[in-house]
Amino acid sequence: MKPVLALVGRPNVGKSTLFNRLTKSRDAIVADYAGLTRDRHYGQGRLGNREYIVIDTGGFEPEAGEGSIFREMAKQTRQAIAEADAVIFVVDARGGLSGQDHDIAKELRRLGKTCVLVANKAEGMTEGAQLAEFYELGLGEVVPVSAAHGQGVRSMVEAALDTLGVPEEDDDAERVDDGIIRLAVAGRPNVGKSTLINAWLGEERLVAYDLPGTTRDAISVPFERDGKKFELIDTAGLRRKGKVFEAIEKFSVVKTLQAIESANVVLLLLDATQGVTDQDAHIAGFILDAGRAVVLAVNKWDAVDAYQREMVQRSIETRLPFLKFAEIHFISAKKRQGLAPLWKSIAKAYAAAMRKMPTPQLTRLLLEAVQFQQPKRSGMYRPKLRYAHQGGMNPPVIVVHGNSLEGVTDTYKRYLEGRFRKAFDLVGTPLRVEMKSARNPYADKDS
After folding, report:
1. What's the whole-model pTM score?
2. Which positions make up the binding site for GTP?
Protein backbone atom coordinates (compact mmCIF):
# COMPACT_ATOMS: atom_id res chain seq x y z
CA MET A 1 0.00 0.00 0.00
CA LYS A 2 1.20 3.51 -0.74
CA PRO A 3 2.13 5.57 2.33
CA VAL A 4 -0.10 8.58 3.07
CA LEU A 5 1.37 12.00 3.95
CA ALA A 6 -0.87 14.76 5.36
CA LEU A 7 0.10 18.46 5.14
CA VAL A 8 -0.97 20.21 8.34
CA GLY A 9 -0.46 23.75 9.62
CA ARG A 10 -2.15 27.03 10.44
CA PRO A 11 -3.74 29.05 7.60
CA ASN A 12 -1.61 30.66 4.90
CA VAL A 13 1.70 28.92 5.55
CA GLY A 14 1.86 27.51 1.99
CA LYS A 15 0.39 24.01 2.36
CA SER A 16 -1.51 24.19 -0.94
CA THR A 17 1.57 25.45 -2.80
CA LEU A 18 3.51 22.53 -1.33
CA PHE A 19 0.69 20.12 -2.31
CA ASN A 20 0.84 21.35 -5.92
CA ARG A 21 4.63 20.96 -5.90
CA LEU A 22 4.43 17.36 -4.59
CA THR A 23 1.66 16.28 -6.98
CA LYS A 24 3.03 18.26 -9.96
CA SER A 25 -0.46 19.70 -10.44
CA ARG A 26 -2.55 22.78 -9.81
CA ASP A 27 -5.36 20.88 -8.10
CA ALA A 28 -5.23 22.99 -4.95
CA ILE A 29 -6.33 26.63 -5.22
CA VAL A 30 -3.48 28.92 -4.15
CA ALA A 31 -3.84 32.56 -3.11
CA ASP A 32 -2.37 34.89 -0.49
CA TYR A 33 -5.52 34.64 1.60
CA ALA A 34 -5.87 32.79 4.91
CA GLY A 35 -8.35 29.93 5.12
CA LEU A 36 -8.81 29.39 1.38
CA THR A 37 -8.54 25.59 1.59
CA ARG A 38 -11.47 24.18 3.58
CA ASP A 39 -11.84 20.56 2.46
CA ARG A 40 -9.25 17.83 2.09
CA HIS A 41 -7.58 17.37 -1.30
CA TYR A 42 -5.95 14.10 -2.33
CA GLY A 43 -3.17 13.65 -4.86
CA GLN A 44 -0.50 11.23 -6.04
CA GLY A 45 3.20 11.94 -5.54
CA ARG A 46 6.42 10.20 -6.51
CA LEU A 47 10.04 10.44 -5.38
CA GLY A 48 12.17 8.27 -7.65
CA ASN A 49 10.66 4.78 -7.43
CA ARG A 50 8.78 5.58 -4.24
CA GLU A 51 5.14 6.61 -4.61
CA TYR A 52 2.84 8.10 -2.00
CA ILE A 53 -0.56 9.74 -1.47
CA VAL A 54 -0.55 13.33 -0.20
CA ILE A 55 -3.45 15.12 1.52
CA ASP A 56 -3.81 18.91 1.57
CA THR A 57 -5.83 20.30 4.47
CA GLY A 58 -7.30 23.63 5.49
CA GLY A 59 -5.77 25.79 8.21
CA PHE A 60 -5.78 23.87 11.51
CA GLU A 61 -7.12 25.70 14.55
CA PRO A 62 -7.57 23.06 17.28
CA GLU A 63 -9.39 25.48 19.60
CA ALA A 64 -11.83 26.85 16.97
CA GLY A 65 -15.24 27.83 18.37
CA GLU A 66 -18.41 25.77 17.97
CA GLY A 67 -20.31 26.39 14.71
CA SER A 68 -17.50 28.28 12.94
CA ILE A 69 -16.10 27.32 9.56
CA PHE A 70 -12.72 26.93 11.25
CA ARG A 71 -14.18 24.21 13.50
CA GLU A 72 -15.34 22.28 10.43
CA MET A 73 -11.90 22.77 8.86
CA ALA A 74 -10.34 21.42 12.07
CA LYS A 75 -12.57 18.32 11.79
CA GLN A 76 -11.34 17.79 8.22
CA THR A 77 -7.73 18.16 9.35
CA ARG A 78 -8.13 15.70 12.23
CA GLN A 79 -9.55 13.16 9.78
CA ALA A 80 -6.60 13.73 7.43
CA ILE A 81 -4.23 13.13 10.36
CA ALA A 82 -6.12 9.92 11.21
CA GLU A 83 -5.81 8.74 7.59
CA ALA A 84 -2.10 9.59 7.31
CA ASP A 85 0.92 7.41 8.02
CA ALA A 86 3.01 10.55 8.60
CA VAL A 87 2.20 14.23 9.13
CA ILE A 88 4.16 17.05 7.52
CA PHE A 89 3.69 19.98 9.91
CA VAL A 90 4.24 23.20 7.93
CA VAL A 91 5.24 26.43 9.69
CA ASP A 92 6.08 29.87 8.25
CA ALA A 93 9.84 30.54 8.40
CA ARG A 94 9.34 34.26 7.68
CA GLY A 95 6.31 34.79 9.90
CA GLY A 96 8.01 33.08 12.83
CA LEU A 97 6.59 30.91 15.59
CA SER A 98 3.02 31.58 16.72
CA GLY A 99 0.69 30.45 19.47
CA GLN A 100 -1.28 28.44 16.89
CA ASP A 101 1.87 26.51 16.01
CA HIS A 102 2.25 25.55 19.67
CA ASP A 103 -1.41 24.41 19.80
CA ILE A 104 -1.00 22.27 16.67
CA ALA A 105 2.27 20.75 17.95
CA LYS A 106 0.54 19.89 21.24
CA GLU A 107 -2.30 18.19 19.31
CA LEU A 108 0.15 16.21 17.14
CA ARG A 109 2.08 15.02 20.19
CA ARG A 110 -1.20 13.95 21.82
CA LEU A 111 -2.16 11.93 18.71
CA GLY A 112 1.26 10.30 18.60
CA LYS A 113 1.62 10.50 14.80
CA THR A 114 4.95 10.31 12.99
CA CYS A 115 5.73 13.96 12.22
CA VAL A 116 8.20 15.93 10.07
CA LEU A 117 8.51 19.63 10.96
CA VAL A 118 8.91 21.80 7.87
CA ALA A 119 9.70 25.53 7.77
CA ASN A 120 8.28 26.88 4.49
CA LYS A 121 9.22 30.16 2.76
CA ALA A 122 12.84 29.62 3.83
CA GLU A 123 14.41 30.67 0.53
CA GLY A 124 17.66 32.55 1.16
CA MET A 125 17.72 31.62 4.87
CA THR A 126 20.47 29.72 6.61
CA GLU A 127 19.69 26.78 8.84
CA GLY A 128 20.96 28.66 11.90
CA ALA A 129 19.44 31.31 14.13
CA GLN A 130 16.43 32.12 11.92
CA LEU A 131 15.00 28.62 12.32
CA ALA A 132 16.14 27.97 15.90
CA GLU A 133 12.87 29.14 17.51
CA PHE A 134 10.92 26.28 15.86
CA TYR A 135 12.85 23.73 17.97
CA GLU A 136 10.67 24.98 20.85
CA LEU A 137 7.85 22.86 19.41
CA GLY A 138 9.65 19.71 20.51
CA LEU A 139 9.16 17.88 17.22
CA GLY A 140 12.79 17.27 16.33
CA GLU A 141 14.75 18.58 13.35
CA VAL A 142 13.41 21.50 11.29
CA VAL A 143 13.53 20.94 7.51
CA PRO A 144 13.78 24.29 5.63
CA VAL A 145 11.94 24.36 2.28
CA SER A 146 10.58 26.76 -0.28
CA ALA A 147 7.42 25.32 -1.81
CA ALA A 148 7.23 28.19 -4.31
CA HIS A 149 10.77 27.54 -5.62
CA GLY A 150 11.04 23.79 -4.96
CA GLN A 151 14.03 24.12 -2.62
CA GLY A 152 14.40 21.42 0.03
CA VAL A 153 11.19 19.61 -1.02
CA ARG A 154 13.01 16.43 -2.00
CA SER A 155 14.80 16.29 1.37
CA MET A 156 11.46 16.79 3.13
CA VAL A 157 9.80 13.86 1.33
CA GLU A 158 12.88 11.66 1.85
CA ALA A 159 12.76 12.43 5.58
CA ALA A 160 9.05 11.49 5.77
CA LEU A 161 9.42 8.26 3.76
CA ASP A 162 12.62 7.24 5.56
CA THR A 163 10.86 7.72 8.90
CA LEU A 164 8.14 5.31 7.71
CA GLY A 165 10.72 2.82 6.45
CA VAL A 166 9.48 2.96 2.85
CA PRO A 167 12.04 1.03 0.70
CA GLU A 168 14.04 2.77 -2.02
CA GLU A 169 12.71 0.53 -4.78
CA ASP A 170 9.27 -0.74 -5.67
CA ASP A 171 8.28 -4.15 -4.31
CA ASP A 172 7.91 -6.11 -7.55
CA ALA A 173 6.32 -8.99 -5.69
CA GLU A 174 3.05 -7.08 -5.65
CA ARG A 175 2.90 -7.15 -9.43
CA VAL A 176 3.77 -10.85 -9.90
CA ASP A 177 1.06 -12.59 -11.91
CA ASP A 178 -0.09 -15.27 -9.47
CA GLY A 179 -3.21 -16.06 -11.46
CA ILE A 180 -5.51 -14.28 -8.99
CA ILE A 181 -7.49 -11.42 -10.52
CA ARG A 182 -7.72 -8.62 -7.95
CA LEU A 183 -10.98 -6.85 -8.61
CA ALA A 184 -11.87 -3.61 -6.81
CA VAL A 185 -15.49 -2.48 -6.85
CA ALA A 186 -15.39 1.32 -6.60
CA GLY A 187 -17.94 4.09 -6.68
CA ARG A 188 -19.76 6.71 -4.67
CA PRO A 189 -21.63 5.73 -1.50
CA ASN A 190 -24.95 3.96 -1.87
CA VAL A 191 -24.59 2.92 -5.53
CA GLY A 192 -24.88 -0.76 -4.58
CA LYS A 193 -21.29 -2.00 -4.33
CA SER A 194 -21.85 -4.36 -1.40
CA THR A 195 -25.20 -5.48 -2.84
CA LEU A 196 -23.47 -6.41 -6.10
CA ILE A 197 -20.79 -8.48 -4.38
CA ASN A 198 -23.43 -10.23 -2.25
CA ALA A 199 -25.34 -11.04 -5.45
CA TRP A 200 -22.17 -12.52 -6.95
CA LEU A 201 -21.39 -14.56 -3.85
CA GLY A 202 -24.99 -15.70 -3.39
CA GLU A 203 -24.89 -14.94 0.32
CA GLU A 204 -24.86 -11.99 2.70
CA ARG A 205 -21.08 -11.84 3.07
CA LEU A 206 -20.98 -8.02 3.23
CA VAL A 207 -23.23 -5.67 5.15
CA ALA A 208 -25.50 -3.86 2.66
CA TYR A 209 -27.86 -1.14 3.91
CA ASP A 210 -29.63 1.70 2.14
CA LEU A 211 -27.38 4.16 3.96
CA PRO A 212 -24.36 5.99 2.51
CA GLY A 213 -21.05 5.12 4.12
CA THR A 214 -21.93 1.72 5.61
CA THR A 215 -18.64 0.18 4.47
CA ARG A 216 -15.89 1.62 6.65
CA ASP A 217 -12.88 -0.10 5.14
CA ALA A 218 -11.78 -2.00 2.04
CA ILE A 219 -12.83 -5.66 2.48
CA SER A 220 -11.20 -8.50 0.50
CA VAL A 221 -13.27 -11.58 -0.35
CA PRO A 222 -11.74 -14.64 -2.12
CA PHE A 223 -13.97 -15.95 -4.88
CA GLU A 224 -13.78 -18.50 -7.70
CA ARG A 225 -15.82 -18.58 -10.90
CA ASP A 226 -15.45 -20.80 -13.98
CA GLY A 227 -12.11 -22.06 -12.72
CA LYS A 228 -10.65 -18.55 -12.27
CA LYS A 229 -9.61 -17.20 -8.88
CA PHE A 230 -10.63 -13.70 -7.88
CA GLU A 231 -10.07 -11.45 -4.91
CA LEU A 232 -13.00 -9.06 -4.62
CA ILE A 233 -12.32 -5.74 -2.91
CA ASP A 234 -15.37 -3.82 -1.73
CA THR A 235 -14.18 -0.25 -1.23
CA ALA A 236 -15.72 2.30 1.08
CA GLY A 237 -17.79 4.86 -0.81
CA LEU A 238 -16.37 8.26 -1.69
CA ARG A 239 -18.43 11.22 -0.46
CA ARG A 240 -18.71 14.63 -2.10
CA LYS A 241 -16.20 17.24 -0.91
CA GLY A 242 -17.27 18.89 2.31
CA LYS A 243 -19.48 15.94 3.30
CA VAL A 244 -16.88 13.75 4.98
CA PHE A 245 -17.31 14.85 8.58
CA GLU A 246 -18.63 11.61 10.16
CA ALA A 247 -16.08 9.32 11.77
CA ILE A 248 -17.76 6.31 10.09
CA GLU A 249 -16.22 7.44 6.79
CA LYS A 250 -12.89 8.50 8.20
CA PHE A 251 -10.81 6.22 5.99
CA SER A 252 -13.02 6.01 2.91
CA VAL A 253 -11.08 8.12 0.41
CA VAL A 254 -7.60 6.83 1.20
CA LYS A 255 -8.76 3.21 1.38
CA THR A 256 -10.51 3.57 -1.98
CA LEU A 257 -7.37 5.01 -3.60
CA GLN A 258 -5.23 2.26 -2.08
CA ALA A 259 -7.69 -0.44 -3.18
CA ILE A 260 -7.60 0.92 -6.74
CA GLU A 261 -3.79 0.89 -6.65
CA SER A 262 -3.61 -2.73 -5.45
CA ALA A 263 -6.21 -4.05 -7.95
CA ASN A 264 -5.66 -5.47 -11.42
CA VAL A 265 -9.16 -4.52 -12.60
CA VAL A 266 -11.57 -1.90 -11.21
CA LEU A 267 -15.33 -2.17 -11.67
CA LEU A 268 -16.58 1.42 -11.58
CA LEU A 269 -20.19 1.33 -10.45
CA LEU A 270 -22.48 4.22 -11.44
CA ASP A 271 -26.03 5.02 -10.28
CA ALA A 272 -28.59 5.18 -13.11
CA THR A 273 -30.92 7.30 -10.98
CA GLN A 274 -28.29 10.05 -10.57
CA GLY A 275 -26.26 9.87 -13.79
CA VAL A 276 -22.54 10.63 -13.92
CA THR A 277 -21.60 13.06 -11.14
CA ASP A 278 -18.41 15.03 -10.51
CA GLN A 279 -17.39 12.45 -7.93
CA ASP A 280 -17.80 9.63 -10.47
CA ALA A 281 -15.48 11.54 -12.81
CA HIS A 282 -12.93 12.01 -9.99
CA ILE A 283 -12.91 8.28 -9.22
CA ALA A 284 -12.56 7.50 -12.94
CA GLY A 285 -9.61 9.90 -13.03
CA PHE A 286 -7.94 8.08 -10.12
CA ILE A 287 -8.40 4.76 -11.93
CA LEU A 288 -6.88 6.15 -15.13
CA ASP A 289 -3.94 7.75 -13.26
CA ALA A 290 -3.26 4.42 -11.55
CA GLY A 291 -3.28 2.71 -14.96
CA ARG A 292 -5.76 0.05 -13.90
CA ALA A 293 -8.00 -1.90 -16.27
CA VAL A 294 -11.63 -0.83 -15.85
CA VAL A 295 -15.16 -2.03 -16.56
CA LEU A 296 -18.13 0.36 -16.25
CA ALA A 297 -21.40 -0.88 -14.74
CA VAL A 298 -24.53 1.27 -14.41
CA ASN A 299 -26.57 -0.06 -11.49
CA LYS A 300 -30.32 0.42 -10.73
CA TRP A 301 -31.07 0.26 -14.48
CA ASP A 302 -34.49 -1.18 -13.65
CA ALA A 303 -35.40 1.97 -11.69
CA VAL A 304 -35.24 4.45 -14.61
CA ASP A 305 -37.42 5.05 -17.65
CA ALA A 306 -36.37 5.25 -21.32
CA TYR A 307 -35.67 9.01 -21.20
CA GLN A 308 -33.45 8.69 -18.11
CA ARG A 309 -31.59 5.81 -19.71
CA GLU A 310 -30.81 7.92 -22.75
CA MET A 311 -29.60 10.78 -20.53
CA VAL A 312 -27.34 8.42 -18.55
CA GLN A 313 -25.76 7.10 -21.73
CA ARG A 314 -25.17 10.65 -22.97
CA SER A 315 -23.63 11.71 -19.65
CA ILE A 316 -21.19 8.77 -19.84
CA GLU A 317 -20.13 9.86 -23.34
CA THR A 318 -19.67 13.51 -22.36
CA ARG A 319 -18.28 13.22 -18.83
CA LEU A 320 -16.15 10.08 -19.14
CA PRO A 321 -14.73 10.33 -22.68
CA PHE A 322 -11.29 9.27 -21.40
CA LEU A 323 -12.72 5.80 -20.61
CA LYS A 324 -13.81 5.03 -24.16
CA PHE A 325 -11.73 1.86 -24.06
CA ALA A 326 -13.88 0.41 -21.23
CA GLU A 327 -16.87 -1.84 -21.82
CA ILE A 328 -20.21 -0.70 -20.33
CA HIS A 329 -22.92 -2.87 -18.74
CA PHE A 330 -26.37 -1.89 -17.48
CA ILE A 331 -27.38 -3.96 -14.46
CA SER A 332 -29.60 -4.32 -11.41
CA ALA A 333 -27.62 -5.76 -8.50
CA LYS A 334 -30.72 -5.97 -6.31
CA LYS A 335 -32.65 -8.03 -8.90
CA ARG A 336 -29.50 -9.81 -10.14
CA GLN A 337 -30.09 -8.73 -13.73
CA GLY A 338 -27.25 -8.46 -16.25
CA LEU A 339 -24.55 -9.68 -13.86
CA ALA A 340 -23.17 -12.66 -15.83
CA PRO A 341 -21.80 -10.61 -18.78
CA LEU A 342 -19.74 -8.52 -16.32
CA TRP A 343 -17.41 -11.47 -15.77
CA LYS A 344 -16.56 -11.76 -19.46
CA SER A 345 -15.61 -8.07 -19.59
CA ILE A 346 -13.59 -8.33 -16.36
CA ALA A 347 -11.67 -11.34 -17.70
CA LYS A 348 -11.14 -9.59 -21.04
CA ALA A 349 -9.88 -6.40 -19.35
CA TYR A 350 -7.47 -8.40 -17.16
CA ALA A 351 -6.15 -10.35 -20.15
CA ALA A 352 -5.60 -7.09 -22.04
CA ALA A 353 -3.82 -5.48 -19.07
CA MET A 354 -1.43 -8.45 -18.80
CA ARG A 355 -0.98 -8.93 -22.58
CA LYS A 356 2.53 -9.73 -23.79
CA MET A 357 3.45 -7.91 -26.99
CA PRO A 358 6.53 -9.22 -28.86
CA THR A 359 9.05 -6.62 -30.03
CA PRO A 360 9.11 -7.80 -33.70
CA GLN A 361 5.31 -7.55 -33.93
CA LEU A 362 5.25 -4.13 -32.26
CA THR A 363 7.97 -2.82 -34.56
CA ARG A 364 6.20 -4.14 -37.65
CA LEU A 365 2.94 -2.47 -36.54
CA LEU A 366 4.81 0.78 -35.86
CA LEU A 367 6.44 0.88 -39.30
CA GLU A 368 3.12 0.04 -41.00
CA ALA A 369 1.44 2.90 -39.10
CA VAL A 370 4.21 5.33 -40.14
CA GLN A 371 3.96 4.19 -43.75
CA PHE A 372 0.21 4.79 -43.69
CA GLN A 373 0.53 8.20 -41.98
CA GLN A 374 3.76 9.96 -41.11
CA PRO A 375 4.09 12.31 -38.12
CA LYS A 376 4.08 16.04 -38.85
CA ARG A 377 7.31 17.95 -39.17
CA SER A 378 8.56 19.64 -36.01
CA GLY A 379 10.70 22.62 -36.98
CA MET A 380 13.34 21.55 -39.51
CA TYR A 381 12.98 17.85 -38.81
CA ARG A 382 10.34 15.16 -39.09
CA PRO A 383 10.30 12.68 -36.18
CA LYS A 384 11.68 9.29 -37.21
CA LEU A 385 10.10 6.29 -35.47
CA ARG A 386 12.41 3.26 -35.77
CA TYR A 387 11.28 0.44 -33.47
CA ALA A 388 9.07 -0.31 -30.45
CA HIS A 389 9.08 -2.69 -27.49
CA GLN A 390 6.91 -3.39 -24.46
CA GLY A 391 7.88 -1.42 -21.36
CA GLY A 392 5.45 -2.85 -18.81
CA MET A 393 2.12 -4.48 -18.01
CA ASN A 394 -0.96 -3.50 -15.99
CA PRO A 395 -1.09 -1.04 -17.67
CA PRO A 396 0.58 -2.05 -20.94
CA VAL A 397 3.37 0.37 -21.87
CA ILE A 398 4.81 0.60 -25.39
CA VAL A 399 8.14 2.41 -25.76
CA VAL A 400 8.88 3.84 -29.21
CA HIS A 401 12.50 4.61 -30.11
CA GLY A 402 13.75 6.95 -32.81
CA ASN A 403 15.04 10.47 -33.49
CA SER A 404 13.47 13.88 -32.75
CA LEU A 405 10.54 12.15 -31.02
CA GLU A 406 9.92 15.14 -28.75
CA GLY A 407 8.16 16.61 -31.81
CA VAL A 408 5.56 13.81 -31.96
CA THR A 409 2.14 15.36 -31.28
CA ASP A 410 -0.47 14.00 -28.86
CA THR A 411 -2.77 13.47 -31.84
CA TYR A 412 -0.22 11.19 -33.49
CA LYS A 413 0.30 9.29 -30.21
CA ARG A 414 -3.45 8.65 -30.09
CA TYR A 415 -3.31 7.45 -33.69
CA LEU A 416 -0.56 4.96 -32.76
CA GLU A 417 -2.48 3.92 -29.66
CA GLY A 418 -5.51 3.10 -31.80
CA ARG A 419 -3.43 0.93 -34.14
CA PHE A 420 -1.82 -0.97 -31.23
CA ARG A 421 -5.16 -1.42 -29.45
CA LYS A 422 -6.80 -2.92 -32.53
CA ALA A 423 -3.91 -5.28 -33.27
CA PHE A 424 -3.65 -6.66 -29.71
CA ASP A 425 -7.35 -6.39 -28.75
CA LEU A 426 -6.57 -4.13 -25.78
CA VAL A 427 -10.12 -3.65 -24.51
CA GLY A 428 -10.73 -2.34 -21.00
CA THR A 429 -7.20 -1.23 -20.16
CA PRO A 430 -5.33 2.07 -20.46
CA LEU A 431 -2.40 1.98 -22.88
CA ARG A 432 0.62 4.23 -22.49
CA VAL A 433 2.76 5.06 -25.52
CA GLU A 434 6.12 6.59 -24.54
CA MET A 435 8.64 8.20 -26.88
CA LYS A 436 12.37 7.79 -26.35
CA SER A 437 14.71 9.74 -28.61
CA ALA A 438 18.20 8.49 -29.38
CA ARG A 439 20.95 10.78 -28.11
CA ASN A 440 22.66 12.90 -30.77
CA PRO A 441 26.37 11.88 -30.67
CA TYR A 442 27.37 15.28 -32.10
CA ALA A 443 25.36 17.39 -29.63
CA ASP A 444 28.31 18.07 -27.28
CA LYS A 445 30.93 18.67 -30.00
CA ASP A 446 32.05 22.10 -31.10
CA SER A 447 30.79 23.15 -34.54
Report:
1. 0.69
2. 9-16, 56-60, 120-123, 187-194, 234-238, 299-302
